[in-house]
Amino acid sequence: MKTIITPILIALSILVSCNSNNDTQNSETQTQTDNKQSNIPLLVVTGFGSKKENISLATLKKDYCAGKIYLFATAKEKAKQYFGCENNKIIQSLEDFVPLAKNDELLIIDLENSIPQFKALAIDGIQFFSNAKQYPLTNPDKNLTSFDFSKNVTHFILTGVTAITRHMGALADQQGTDFLVKNLLPHFRNADLVHISNEVSISDPCDYQGVNAAYSFCTKEAHFAPILALGADIIELTGNHNLDYGAEAYKKTMQWYEKHQLQTFGGGLSPELANTPLIITLKDGKKIGFIGFNELCPSGECADKTIGANRYEPEKAKKVIEKMRKELKADLIFVGVQFSEVDAYAPTPSQTKISYELLDFGADVVYGSQAHQIQQIEFRKGKAIFHGLGNFLFDQVHRIGVRQAYFLHHYIYKGKLIQSIPVFTFMAENREPTLANPAEIADMKKVAYIDALLYKW
Which of 91, 126, 235, 291 could bond to 277 as cystine, CB 3.0-4.6 Å? Predict the structure, then answer.
């Protein structure tokens, strides 16, 4: 499905470096150069948790020229060309806009300096990330080269827990696997990269309703079809159940991934391979890196001596992230952790501690791959922590929390994460993944969007 990626898997070695956060103020010269070369759009952003979704172009122009909208310093010249007026409500650093974003204030910002903590609005109902060609907020100088979204912006989808087993596997036996993805496919068709955190290995035969099926998971090979239907590129192996059916099932599953050209991280056939980062070269030449860990390995699933998941150890994590940044030249680093499971919307103290450590080590995004229900979203120095995305393809429906989930549309430009857009889902009683309705979305935002976590630096 995808042709834009070039994987590089390199064994771990120890290097020391320090990743610095994106310094937007130092990018002004490059931004001005880019503006001369192509018709790069401006974004109108506000707080991540804001209820605002859209603004009319007429209102935007009027309020901007009236000094009611803030302007990021690097976008000053371009905004003047577009709006034809001066605006002195200048924001010099993204940190300064955080408390304003909490109050639904708006900011005009150039594309490369946007961060996921600020949500981009649609203009006249046209969202840049879904309809760039029709997006109106571009430089009016027709002599400039048109901005080519397809060549410059990478669309990456990150998902929650997948384990097609138990009741979901039994249903797949009865009616096939199409029901698992039919409601989701429209969101996945235009993605450049798709991530699946798969917690189950292949075993044929697999008794989905046997005496041990409640806590010991397997999947029939035919029931891996949804992974391919969604266009998966990247498989995370940090889960607790990949070794439930032993080493041979694990090895067979790794062979299946290799056969279908799926790249893996967070686990492997040796301790060294489990701790090997996945580096993918994007279509613009920038690199995205992935590494994954398991916090506690409650089922003995970690590759401490042989195969399995990558156990979390702070010093090991620090070294591999530093290696990714300095030696492997990753521009953007995602770290997934299979934390200890908890039936709560708030992360555990250990989750928060480890997530903060990983950001301090140099990660750009940290997410919890363990959560069977959604957990809170947090930003720290402009970087995102998605504490738990909930169940993506897993059969739980016994309480409201495990039916609530989301996956994320991430957009990457020049090696930077510029936008993260959640798509909320709700597991139907018949275990068919569905897109959440407005009331269900509102309920999930109440528990996942906490101002104290969204609007701090």
Answer: 291
CATH of the domain at 66: 3.40.190.10
**Same domain for 388 and 255:** yes
Average pLDDT (136-162) is: 89
| Rounded alpha-carbon distances, angstroms, from residue 210 to 135, 164, 169, 213, 252 | 54, 15, 12, 5, 22
What is the residue whose two structure tokens read 């613009």?
284
CB atoms within 10 A of CB 138: 18
Domain match, 266 and 324 both: yes
| H helices present in 212-362, as ranges | 225-229, 246-259, 271-274, 314-326, 349-361
Q: Is residue 26 one of the residues assigned to a domain?
A: no
Examine residue 414 and state whether it is found in any structural domain, yes or no: yes
Instruction: Kindly report, residue by residue over 375-433, the tens digit of the pLDDT.
Output: 999 999 999 999 999 999 999 999 999 999 999 999 999 999 999 999 999 999 999 99
Exposure letters 181-208 (e unless 16+ CB within 10 A, then b): beebeeebeebbbbbbbbbbbbbeebeb
135, 140, 143, 146: CA torsion to nearest 10: -10
Confidence grade of residue 39 (pLDDT, cut at 50, 70, 90): confident
What value does the mean pLDDT take over residues 21-26? 42
Question: For residues 256 and 261, what is the distance between their CA atoms, to the nearest angstrom?
Answer: 9
Are residues 218 and 358 both part of a single domain?
yes
Indicate whether 173 and 125 sit together in one domain: no
Is position 83 within any domain? Answer: yes
The full DSSP string for 318-329 is HHHHHHHHHTS-
- Could you tell me if 137 and 230 lie in one domain? no
Structure tokens at 82: 């577009």
Number of neighbouring beta carbons within 10 Å of residue 16: 9
pLDDT digits (tens, 9 = 90+) for 358-378: 999 999 999 999 999 999 999
> Are 95 and 170 contained in the same domain?
no
Q: Domain check: are 161 and 140 in the same one?
A: no
Token pair listed for 218 = 């397997």
Q: Are residues 198 and 214 in the same domain?
A: yes
Number of domains in the chain: 2
Contact at 8 Å (CB) between 432 and 183?
yes
3-state SS, residue 428: coil
CB 392 within 8 A of CB 405: yes
Q: What integer is the mean pLDDT of 49-69? A: 97
Q: Which residue has the tokens 């070294």?
A: 319
Is the pLDDT score of 248 beyond 50? yes
Give the residue among 244, 217, 225 at the shortest CA–CA distance from 172. 225
Tokens of 238: 């940090």
**By residue range, what is the domain housing residue 167?**
6-17+154-454
> What's the Rg (C-alpha) of the chain?
22
